[in-house]
Amino acid sequence: MSGLAETVLSLLGAGIARSSPLHGGDLSEVQLLDLTDGRRVVAKSGPLVAAEAAMLCAIRDAGAPAPEVLGVAGPVLLMDALEETAAGADGWQALGHSLRQLHAATGPHYGWAEDYAFGGVEIPNAPLENWVEFWASRRLLASPDALPRDLRQRVEALCLRLPELLPAAPPAALLHGDLWSGNVLFSGQAAYLIDPACYWGHGEVDLAMLHLFGAPPAAFLDSYGALEPGYEARRAIYQLWPALVHLRLFGSGYRSMVKARLEALGF
To answer: Is residue 150 annotated as a catalytic residue, yes or no?
Structure first.
């Protein structure tokens, strides 16, 4: 019996009848399992699955849809399997409501109880009281030596100006933390948040990420509700960090994405 089969049997009391890979496993292995008792579950394997399970529970506790965590053991996370459907207007509207609900949950500081990572890119989350300091030290310049020298110098120059560009104390909203469209699972008329990298921060971070690879439709924006003045000017600042992460994870093909955000900000 394989390690995964033993884990499933221990946690759920059933065997694996068949398994198939699921998309979205760039940084971890994800499988759909049909169990011998008729249930279908998702198994995700990786070094940080316990942290992800806690994040999924935090999202659900905030009243936003996320897969139900069925169990965690070692490097394996088991979740309820959801039937994925096409993203129609109703689904995008549901995502707007879900994200507004998520951001309505607020914390006592910026950051999270523990650090996280995207593959080999560490995400420091040690709490801070000042949002500008958090975005500079925990995100844009969290690993300055990992950046090409010319880009690092431009990011450092931007960080000196951040007190003029970002609010010091926006509400510390519960963030998904990696909210591109591939981390939303549309099922019927609902929109479930998957693959989170949660922390407390400015809600505009999730919105900026959702606009990084294409604009969501009007149905989403209408249901999310009013945005703070100046959000469009701040978007490039919040998109810069995931652009830097992509550069580090996937190479020079993302250098133009980083440069475009810096140039839009005048750096």
So the answer is: no
Q: What is the pLDDT of residues 12-48, one digit of tens each?
A: 999 999 999 987 555 678 999 999 999 999 999 999 9
Structural tokens at position 156? 């450092």
Domain count, the chain: 2
Backbone phi, psi, residue 83, to 5°: -80, 115
> Which residue type does 6 have?
E
Instruction: Name the catalytic one among 34, 178, 195, 222.
Output: 178
Q: pTM of the entire structure?
A: 0.95
List helix spans (H) across 115-226: 131-134, 149-165, 204-210, 218-224
Q: Give the whole-angstrom CA distance, residue 175 versus residue 62.
A: 11
- Please indicate, yes or no, whether residues 168 and 228 belong to a single structural domain of this protein: yes
Range of the domain at 205: 89-264
Choose among 206, 200, 134, 124: nearest CA to 163. Answer: 134
